[in-house]
Amino acid sequence: MEALLGKTLDELKLVAREAGLPAFAAKQLAQWIYVHKVRSIDEMTNISKAGREALAQTYCIGCSDPVDCQRSVDGTIKYLYQTADGHYIETVYIPDGDRATLCVSSQVGCRMGCKFCMTGRQGFHGNLTATDILNQLYSLPERDTLTNVVFMGQGEPLDNIDHVLRATELLTASYGYAWSPKRITVSTVGVRKGLLRFLEESDCHLAVSLHNPFPEQRHKMMPAENGYSLTEFIPLLRRQDWTHQRRVSFEYIVFGGLNDTPAHARELVSLLAPFECRVNLIRFHDIPDTEFRGAPEQTMTWLRDYLTQHGVTTTIRASRGQDIFAACGLLSTAKQEEEVQ
Known about the structure:
The protein is of the alpha/beta class. The chain has helices at 9-18, 25-35, 49-56, 118-122, 130-138, 161-172, 192-201, 215-221, 230-238, 262-272, 297-309, 334-340, and strands at 2-3, 59-60, 68-71, 77-82, 88-96, 99-103, 107-109, 124-127, 148-151, 184-188, 205-209, 248-254, 277-283, 314-316.
């Protein structure tokens, strides 16, 4: 069966036509899916019974509930979803006062190979479809509380640019979720083709996984540096207009003795100031068999203060869900797949 979730309004017009429905039924379908979030075609009560039966011969909604979850002491919840083709991905729900953010995955595994990331160790097993991406919101038990979505889960979003752009289109379209692009942030390590398309075709916020201002050192940590160096994409980002609705931020995991020295701080200032951006310093959470270690708290505080004093607005991101391995860089479904299967 083909999923209706993930289809644009133009595609729903074709669906309606094939099912013998009038043209206006496409907007009805969109409303049932993206506004009412129905679980079955039978719930679409303003479509004739014959029309629903015709739709059901070929289509389904395409939603599926989480198959497992883990709850952190800080309120963070990590959900395990099964994709349409039988893989498993993790999604993290992060409540914080009057805000609630969902960290969604865009791929099964990841091909970027960052040395400090559990997902990267899984290797790459496929792209998620827009249906798989949107289902992480659609079937979330807390979906009605969401205020923001960040594409910072498993995978490199701009390596799956077609489906990520389709998902963000449906999240922001007037016939879809009708969210403001300001509620959505897409992360990247810097993927040339995907980044160029994202900057051209989307108004959502951008978060760049930086982690080291020296290209040769960054390459040792993040092999993707070899494909699109920060010496190329930082100047590109500088030329963009970040002064209005859209913003760019830089994620910087702080590793003790590796990227937290005065030389790194000075190079970050040289790279980013003056620039309408923000740097988020992130605590490193230990993963097995790694050479990396976290930096002391006093080092993170010093780095934040140094960058801010030299014209680069910098914050230390609060760590969430570490006890359930839901924090930055810890998502990995290998163990869960074994248990579920």
